[in-house]
Amino acid sequence: MANLLSGKAVSAKALGSxxxxxxxxxASGGSxxxxxxxxxxxxxxxxxYVRNKHRACEQVGFHSLEFKLxxxxxxxxxxxxxxxxxxxxxxxxxxxxxPLPKGYDYDESAVQRAISPGKDVDAFHPYNTGLLSLGMPxxxxxxxxxxxxxxxxxxxxLAGKEVVVLGRSNIVGKPMALLALAxxxxxTICHSRTKALAQITRRADVLxxxxxxxxxxxxxxxxxxxxxxxxxxxxxxDGKVCGDVDFDTVAEKAAWITPVPGGCGPMTIAMLxxxxxxxxxxxQGDA
Length: 287
Ligand code: NAP
Prior knowledge:
six-stranded parallel sheet
């Protein structure tokens, strides 16, 4: 049976460290890190994500601002809110909860480009994506950063390892592959057009899965003794949440595995707090 890569435990440590550094920053006369989150519409899942970010801010001693826009607010109103927050020196991190409501004229990519790169704590701005691809990141995207932290905490080195990333999205798969490459892994990225997928995933010493399909990865796709990181979050019809990996069977074969929930999810929020602290320190010339 595999060892658990527990995002709950590792994120608690990361949040504790952010809380300590925040207290030190404020005690030394620095300003309290402030994260502004914009939420458009009333999607229940987005509301939960925003609430969790707010709670994490409270936990580490940040000031958290929430701006709710009605579903029909429109792109111009959204961009104008972003500009206001960019211009507000007391705000250190700005993010807009994605996805934006479907069926309206929103352009997610334009919103990501509008956020000032120095406040881009999600690290989705092309400037930050470019720095990451050059190996000189200012901020790392939170989910792949959380995966790296989980692996680091478990003392699982990537140098020289075969890492297979399943999924090539801009927010998870691609940056994940870049981070594994920067850690000297030999990296393969798979996607919906990949042929003989199981042959490739079985080569993986470390398999990182972000496809968004419940229990997509089964035991026959995994090498004995592999490390399996499940980024997926899928809500089933009975309301339960499961990952992209068939946990019960894969855990019999893997050496390490992340649970869902309690794996990558809590890490993502903890890394958002790390990025916000970094943004606050950068703004105060203290990073
Ligand atoms: P996405 O944008 O939908 O990307 C999914 C990727 O999976 C795409 O690259 C797609 O390939 C690939 N794919 C789909 N079906 C496939 C198949 N049959 N075989 C091989 N590849 C396939 O999703 P995402 O935003 O990266 O998110 C992935 C999952 O992670 C979702 O469950 C999401 O909820 C979760 N997530 C979790 C966190 C967290 O904090 N834990 C954060 C972000 C996302 P193509 O490019 O060819 O279409």
